């Protein structure tokens, strides 16, 4: 089991972080039971920061089912603290319930029209209320084939993080999730994912300086499985994984966490 979540980094060593994104799966009872099974399956992963992101309706159940060694995250937040926004949940409401928030996932961008400016406002809200934002960026297949990946990634990163101070930046987690790999069973290669992570880090440096950029953890997400996790987690610029479908399988998720633990020397 990992130690309690720690958001600051010691020196130049970035602590691996593996997050489970359950998306729109599990009832509250199922979520509680799955969280317990995952906790029991992960028996030895010292130094890995773990996060479970269930549907909003199950956040409280999952938080109650876990001890402090595993963090809990929301899959989305709204940037206003309160108001006439039917169906939304603010960062302010989540204080004490979870510690993280996934922001800008491609499914939010694709299905719900989430813009880079909305992502920026949500990042700001998360930081204001002490939540660690897991900020997702990634290109479509058409953009990749057109050679637009580097420019698109830079645009998304700058759009999400403009105006963020170096101190705030160092507590952000980035997730590279190529849209064409999410839920398709087709993953990027480790080398390709590492090249994009390096591009992300170079843009972060232009935003907040070298020290802050080097402190940021960058996850890979997109059809991550126990079979391919080591390929990504052995890369120099990739510090963890944002795991979708495989995170609904306790033993599969535990194997991915073990791949992250193996990265620690």
Strand segment tally: 8
CATH class reads Alpha Beta
Q: How would you state the average pLDDT, rounded?
A: 93
Derived structural class:
alpha/beta
Roughly what percent helix? 40-55%
Q: Looking at CATH, which topology would you report?
A: TIM Barrel
Low-confidence runs of at least 5 consecutive residues: 1-12
Strand order across the largest sheet: 1-2-3-4-5-6-7-8
Helix-strand sequence = EHEHEHEHHEHHHEHHEHEH
Percentage beta strand = 5-15%
Q: Total domains, how many? A: 1
User: How far from one another are the termini?
Assistant: 17 Å
CATH architecture: Alpha-Beta Barrel
Shape: globular
Per DSSP, the total helix count is: 12
Q: Quick one: biggest sheet? A: 8 strands, parallel, barrel
CATH H-level superfamily:
Aldolase class I
| Rg (C-alpha, Å) | 17 Å
Account of the protein in words:
The chain has one domain (27-261): Aldolase class I (TIM Barrel), CATH 3.20.20.70. The chain has helices at residues 28-41, 59-65, 91-94, 106-112, 116-128, 141-145, 149-161, 166-169, 190-208, 210-215, 229-233, 250-261; strands at 17-21, 49-53, 71-74, 100-103, 132-137, 173-176, 217-220, 240-243. It contains twelve helices and eight strands. It has an eight-stranded parallel beta barrel with strand order 1-2-3-4-5-6-7-8, surrounded by five helices. Helix content is 41%, strand content 14%. The longest helix has 19 residues, at 190-208.
